[in-house]
Amino acid sequence: MPTDIHDEEQEIEAGPPGRLRRRLGFALIVVLVILLLAFIPPLINVSRFQRRVGGNISAALGRPVHFTHLSLNLLPLPGFTLENFVIDEDPAFGSEPTLRADEVRITLRLSSLWRRRVEFSSISFTDPSVNLVHNPDGRWNIQGLLLQASRIQAAPTAQRYSGPAPRFPYIEATGARLNLKLGEEKTPVSLTDADFALWLPEEHQWHLRLEAQPVRTDMAPGETGTLRLEGTLGGADTHNSLADVPIDLHGTWQDAQLGGLTSLLLGRDAGLRGDFALTFGVLGTIGRNDLTAALQLHDARRADFIPARLLSLVAGCHAIAENSFHTFSDLECHLPPADSSDPALLAITAALPDVRQPQAASVHLTLPSLPAQTFFDWLSVATPHTPTGLAGDGTLSGALAWGEANAQGAADSQHPTWSGELKLSGESLSLPALGADPIPLGDVLLRSTSPPAAPPAHSRPRHAALDAAPVAPDGFDLLPVSLPLSGKQPLVLTGHVDDTGYTLHLSGTAIMERLLALGDAIPQFGDGLRQLLDPASLASPGEAPPAAHVGPSAGRARRPPPPAAPVESAPVAIDLTATRVWGGPQVWSQAPSQALPPAHRHARR
Fold it and tell me: Structural domain boundaries of the chain?
């Protein structure tokens, strides 16, 4: 018994050094393996495989592939690194490479190292530049690559065990740049800082994910937001045509500012501010699919002033895209969205037979019954001079069409025209000069007609730019509007609007004070009117206001008594014409035979 205890004590004392030696041996083996993995790859000459690797990639893509150097990596996972990787372009789409990347890292599947067939687990591109080319015949340069990839038998990327077909690798790119070219011309619109991923969740079905920032290369567009796209391409079967490939994509465009967005799309800042967001979806096939979109504007306004109420709205759209996104039909947009419980304010329907011929599009705009106050709220975002002389619960209704027929009623895709009618009804004039009670204005109609006959010489617009402009093929006439500004014979307002500008014509009799008050209350009508009729009433720059009266005994300033109301002058005959070229000022002129008395020469009590 004592002997057994003694042997056990000796074994216990010898145990820790034995375990320590085993641990040190295992650690030494690990270190040696790491050193071998770190230092052996540079000693292995894999350059002789460079041509074979390039040939295999070229055969898989159907395009010539080049790279300057091939190196072997064993850490952290075995694989290869290709430097200065280039995929050549199809000569039908130009000479600039389809893809260029400084570095491409290919990782091998460890389980495939014990088999004769080598499989890649991932392919990573670093800072690649990709050219997306759209030819005038409607083809994209990546169509051949997609069809070539669809014909390759591949197992799902996440499949655990190897099967008869190799597993599709996980393809990713970071810091990518996507350039859009129309034929040989590279457009200034690009996607930068793009992160892209592509894998195969099921056979013949690719799942893709993209996140990028839209930019414009010829200017700094400001904050354009982030574009995110995710979805699947393909289905359970192979397809001989790209148009037959199923597609199910959804995405968002968030955090965009209207100033940056207009700079991106128009090449200039349109002077708008506010937040823009877009949610969209595509479902069907590449050849024919359903498009849905929801657009949101928050706190929209002009950049040069802040209105009392900012504009916020939500609209919903739907369309059918055909011919590989070259034809759009049954396009509908509703404000608010069609599934909203709020009453409809505006609806747009359109058709675009070919995106390469936008002049062949047709558009219908319908206003079921837009409250006039809502329209004026929208107008207050566009201009600081909103009408204050209109009161009531009026509505703006009507329908407009573009691109269907010219003024003679024949279809003409080379010269699309606007036609239709807009009506403002239920509004009243509310001016102190007209009395305490608002006066019903009657219906205000703007209706498309053929070009009006030339006006008499004495009333023809004298604006030089308007005289030099070609005659518009179509336009809209403002039907006679009666303005009760005299108490006897009303003043009549007519006008014409076309693509060069507009004219307004006033004829009849009016009391001058009431006409000027109306022009001040509706700035869009009265712009430039006071300069013509009452120039002396305009304050001179830097003119000091009248001094306050001081009482003889109190010794402090007193509020001046209200000015005596002027006695209205007698009604006078009016024959005035206003002209404006779009983008220019509004100029009023009077017929040469008219001799209007200056409005500031009023008799006072």
Answer: 34-218
